[in-house]
Amino acid sequence: MLQVNTLFVMIASILVLLMTPGLAFFYGGLVNNRHANNMLLTVFMMCGLAVLLWIAVGYSLSFSGNHFGVFGNLREVLMARVPIDAVTKDGISVGVYAMFMMMFAIITPALFCGSVVGHGRFTFLVFFTICWSILVYYPLVHMVWAPHGLLADLGAVDFAGGLVVHVNAGITALILSAWVGRRHEIGTEHHNLAWVLIGTAMLWFGWYGFNCGSALAVNNTAVQAMLTTTIACSTGMVTWMVLDRHLLHRVTLAGACNGSIAGLVAITPGAGYVTLGGAMVIGLVGVLFSHAFIYRVKPKLAIDDVVDAFGCHGVSGIWGSIATGMFASHAISKVVPNGLFFGGGFHLTLIQLAATALTMAFVAVMDLIIIKALTIFLPVSVDNVVLPPVESKD
44 to each of 16, 18, 51, 325, how far by Cα in Å? Predict the structure, then answer.
């Protein structure tokens, strides 16, 4: 069974890696023609930068030792002394678990970097990603998934990265886009909606590795995660289309794709813990919140999140994390208590609410410190130049 589970997580790792080029297509199709190639580069370069950081210090800071429940130590730098053939408590090899976690470390910074492409400097994003990975991402991985992590000891649950990935990346996207400011250029049409669809399909496909692989074994939890992932994604797509038709009087391909992603984000924290009906409600409500933020709240704010990273990942991720405390079922997974709607009272919901709030506060404070420090040495935004209007040839 060890070999079967190890192979399963290896395949899941490949699927999660597929999500990053998928995200590049998704984001690249949403921005205008001028910034499409820059978006592809910014997202895809994480496949190189994040891997090197994870091997160098990421795994060690995340899973080696424990300091105050917040971060590990540097005893496993370059993973030199990690016994990759040893078996973890989940019944897979340490090496394949480290590989699986590495893929999460790749996709997470890619999510927020897309929010400021076109008006944030590439060099600044590279240095920000390095500092953010060391000071924000690895500590959060430790707090949530390492033994005796601060949030884990609190009793918080995060099946596949609602807090670690989506709330984290969403808040970071919001902070970055607010700091960089609005663009002052013309031409904000989508570059290529076919790219958006291709990227969404790749993300949906890869999300099975993201969620099902987080079971770390070929078991009923992985099957449950596969079903809830599919249901939430489909519910999110249809809900967004209905909202667009009712409120905007049109249905768009970009909207359907955004709805699919918001549904996937919302179910991620509880994919292996909730019922199928719960997955439908979680996907539906997540889209209601994300759609409302993007069309009602965002226009009133001084931010320019060009791909709605916070609107989809942050908002739906926050809801999904809290909703896990409402819809978790002990009958589905023995590792979680019953949530609010299954006779467990408010206990798990309050824990999830506290863990989500602590995550948001930690990420926001650390992001602001990193940005403020980097601005001493690096400019953050590009020079905003208003392009002249094209003269008519008539």
Answer: 13, 11, 12, 34
Residue appearing with tokens 């813990």? 273
pTM over cut 0.90: yes
Residue 261, both tokens: 């992603």
pLDDT per position as a tens digit, 104-141: 999 999 999 989 888 889 999 999 999 999 999 999 99
The CA distance from 93 to 276, in Å, is: 31
Residue 296 host element (H or E)? none
Q: How many CA atoms lie within 13 A of 64 on its CB side?
A: 21
25-64 residue pLDDT tens: 999 999 988 889 999 999 999 999 999 999 999 999 999 9
Query: Rounded CA gap, 173 and 379, in Å?
Result: 18
Residue 47, Ramachandran bin (φ over 0: left; ψ between -120 and 50: alpha; else beta): alpha
120: left (phi over 0), alpha (psi -120 to 50) or beta: beta
Q: How far apart are the C-alpha atoms of 254 and 226, rounded to whole Å?
A: 24
Handedness of CA 327, 330, 331, 332 (dihedral sign): positive
Cα angle 155, 157, 163; round to 5:
120
Match 């031409």 to its residue by tokens.
187
In 3D space, the residue among 322, 313, 192 whose CA is nearest the CA of residue 269 turns out to be: 322
d(CA 300, CA 287): 20
